């Protein structure tokens, strides 16, 4: 790597943070086996009070790997996971990897159409899915075997019993967690009958593909980012190095972020295991559930997004709930308002810092120092073993002058291997010498702190999730009476964006904006549905007829 003179940000690192992290030939599977050896009796997973030790988790993974192997899963095969946060998700993730197979994470909130597109693209023959969404997966793509997971089986016995009481509230709670899944195999029965995978079964190597994570990248068309064991393991190591005050085998990490998202996957599935942390799992962010868990098993490390910090801190302050156990908190996926930092730190006494990343970088590349040197409003400085350049977006071979805005390029061991079966798309973003084009316009100050100025890509980030305008627009154009549409991200007061769509109607057509929003729900996950639909006479276009989304956004902002 370059010297400190070429990497001025190293001077801003918190005490104890190295300039580089050691390279490793181990795989992600080794993270779990090492944690089981070092912290076998420690609680690895906590799900509403039901606990699994690291030794038990390691044994469960071996059993699940044996079960999947009997289903025909072998090295290099893709296995689709369509699961919320639950113990079965963690077990399935590591079991697939133990076989040398490839995990493909999917959002269980996706529609059948959205899932079918991705399932067809990667060609997985086996899928492990939440039983409530199993009908959306059975018979889709190349999937031959669907293994259905009943979340209630991971609950503590008393909570499981309570769900079976002949009460309306109990029935509703049970229906929210599980449903019949015809045409599937039951995960619990499959594992009960399984023989653990032999210890001498060939393990994956660091260079093997571990994960396909679907992202729109800089173009908006969802495609699978290929992430190797090395990519993901080194990013976990970079995260560990970034917070020297962490104590291996003593931390408690809250998984309020979805594990199917790159951010939640690395911080919770790999980073947490790498430090022998207890991972408290929540199927979705529920304020009351998180506060209840904080009383029972206080968190010490919390990765989340700004709206979660605001709600938790506000509720803790108003109700007198103690959150001072949280020493470190990392925010990502959207801009972190300084007011949120002030609120969180006043309530917890811990540090809240912002980071930056993308799916193609496993995902973290920059972070604010976990020290008084942090600078709210910036996304921080490059992680250890990471280099950046700021270049002319029209000619990335030309570096911008210091302080001048330009496109951010990133290089480091966490940078992905390319897009699944899309060499042309890969060539657009992976440049010679390993540089990745991020599509983001940034500035860097003399100390190496980076500020995101604008976004070349027109990705919309709402609630920490990526929404690709083309998907929303396609759904709107399908509706009767809609001639054209443009989807944009509009800033909201609490930070982040909301999806807003401008639509042009066919001549003599009329439409109720709320009816259009409702109709979109047949084709889009809930968070992708426009929060507002505005009917306009026409859309601004370039000379070649391309809709100018930036102008659409500016017009909508001016009309607020």
What does this structure look like?
The structure is a single chain. The longest helix is centred in the N-terminal third of the chain and has 17 residues, at 54-70. A hairpin with a 6-residue loop joins strand 14 and strand 15. The radius of gyration is 23 Å and the shape is globular. It has 560 residues and is of the alpha/beta class. It has a domain at 460-558: ANL, C-terminal domain (GMP Synthetase, Chain A, domain 3, 2-Layer Sandwich), CATH 3.30.300. The strands form 6 sheets. An 8-stranded mixed sheet has the order 7-6-5-3-4-8-9-20, with helices on both faces. Strands 12-13-14-15-16 form a 5-stranded mixed sheet, sandwiched between helices. The chain has 16 helices and 27 strands. Helix 1 runs antiparallel to helix 2 (54-70), helix 8 (229-242) crosses helix 9 (262-274) and helix 11 (306-319) packs across helix 12.
Task: List the keywords.
single chain; 560 residues; alpha/beta; GMP Synthetase, Chain A, domain 3; eight-stranded mixed sheet; 27 strands; ligase activity; Long-chain-fatty-acid--CoA ligase; ANL_N_sf
Q: Which CATH first-tier class of the domain at 460-558 would you pick? A: Alpha Beta
Beta-strand content bin: 15-25%
CATH superfamily name of the domain at 460-558?
A: ANL, C-terminal domain
The CA-CA distance between the termini, in Å, is 49 Å
Radius of gyration: 23 Å
CATH topology of the domain at 460-558: GMP Synthetase, Chain A, domain 3
- What's the total helix number? 16
What strand order characterises the main sheet? 7-6-5-3-4-8-9-20
Query: Mean pLDDT, nearest integer?
Result: 93
Classification by helices and strands? alpha/beta
Q: Main sheet?
A: 8 strands, mixed
> Which segments are poorly predicted (pLDDT under 50) over 5 or more consecutive residues?
none
> Could you say what the CATH architecture of the domain at 460-558 is?
2-Layer Sandwich
3D shape: globular
* Oligomeric state of this protein: single chain
What percent of residues adopt helix (DSSP H or I)? 25-40%
Q: How many strand units? A: 27
């Amino acid at each position: 790597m370059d010297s400190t003179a070429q990497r001025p940000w190293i001077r801003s690192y918190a005490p104890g943070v190295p300039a580089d992290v050691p390279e490793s030939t181990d795989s992600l599977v080794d993270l779990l086996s090492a944690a089981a050896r070092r912290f076998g009796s420690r609680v690895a997973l906590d799900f509403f009070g039901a606990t699994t030790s690291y030794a038990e988790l390691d044994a469960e993974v071996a059993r699940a790997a044996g079960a999947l192997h009997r289903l025909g899963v072998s090295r290099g095969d893709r296995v689709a996971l369509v699961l919320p946060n639950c113990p079965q998700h963690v077990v399935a993730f590591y079991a697939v990897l133990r076989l040398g197979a490839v995990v493909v994470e999917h959002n269980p909130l996706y529609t059948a159409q959205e899932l079918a597109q991705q399932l067809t693209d990667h060609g997985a023959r086996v899928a492990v899915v939440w039983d409530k969404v199993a009908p959306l997966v059975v018979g889709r793509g190349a999937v031959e075997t669907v293994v259905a997971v009943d979340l209630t089986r991971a609950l503590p016995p008393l909570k499981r019993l309570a769900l079976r009481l002949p009460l309306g509230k109990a029935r509703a709670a049970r229906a929210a967690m599980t449903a019949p899944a015809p045409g599937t195999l039951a995960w619990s029965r499959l594992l009960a009958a399984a023989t653990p995978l032999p210890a001498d079964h060939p393990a994956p190597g660091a260079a093997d593909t571990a994960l396909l994570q679907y992202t729109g990248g800089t173009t908006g068309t969802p495609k699978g980012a290929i992430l190797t064991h090395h990519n993901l393991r080194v990013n976990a190591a970079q995260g560990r190095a970034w917070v020297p005050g962490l104590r291996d085998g003593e931390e408690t990490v809250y998984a309020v972020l979805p594990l199917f998202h790159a951010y939640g996957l690395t911080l919770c599935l790999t980073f947490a295991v790498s430090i022998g942390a207890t991972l408290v799992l929540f199927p979705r962010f529920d304020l009351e559930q998180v506060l209840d868990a904080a009383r029972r098993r206080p968190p010490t490390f919390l990765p989340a997004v700004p709206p979660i910090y605001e709600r938790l801190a506000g509720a803790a302050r108003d109700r007198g709930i103690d959150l001072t156990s949280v020493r470190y908190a990392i925010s990502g996926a959207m801009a972190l308002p300084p007011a949120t930092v002030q609120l969180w730190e006043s309530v917890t006494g811990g540090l809240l810092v912002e980071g930056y990343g993308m799916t193609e970088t496993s995902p973290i590349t920059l972070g604010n120092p976990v020290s008084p040197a942090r600078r709210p409003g910036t996304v921080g400085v490059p992680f250890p073993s990471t280099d950046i350049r700021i270049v002319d977006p029209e000619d990335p071979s030309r570096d911008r002058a210091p302080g001048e805005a330009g496109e951010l390029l990133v290089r480091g061991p966490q940078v992905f291997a390319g897009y699944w079966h899309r060499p042309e798309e890969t060539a657009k973003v992976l440049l010679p010498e390993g540089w990745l084009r991020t599509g983001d316009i940034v500035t860097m100050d003399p100390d190496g702190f980076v500020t995101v100025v604008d976004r070349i890509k027109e990705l919309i980030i709402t609630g920490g999730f990526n929404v690709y305008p083309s998907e929303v627009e396609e759904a709107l154009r399908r509706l009767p009476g809609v001639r054209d549409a443009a989807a944009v991200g509009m800033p909201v007061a609490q930070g982040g964006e909301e999806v807003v769509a401008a639509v042009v109607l066919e001549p003599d057509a009329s439409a109720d904006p709320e009816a259009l929003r409702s109709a979109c729900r047949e084709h889009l996950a809930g968070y992708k549905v426009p929060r507002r639909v505005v009917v306009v006479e026409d859309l601004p276009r370039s000379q070649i007829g391309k809709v100018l989304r930036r102008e659409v956004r500016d017009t909508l902002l001016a009309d607020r």
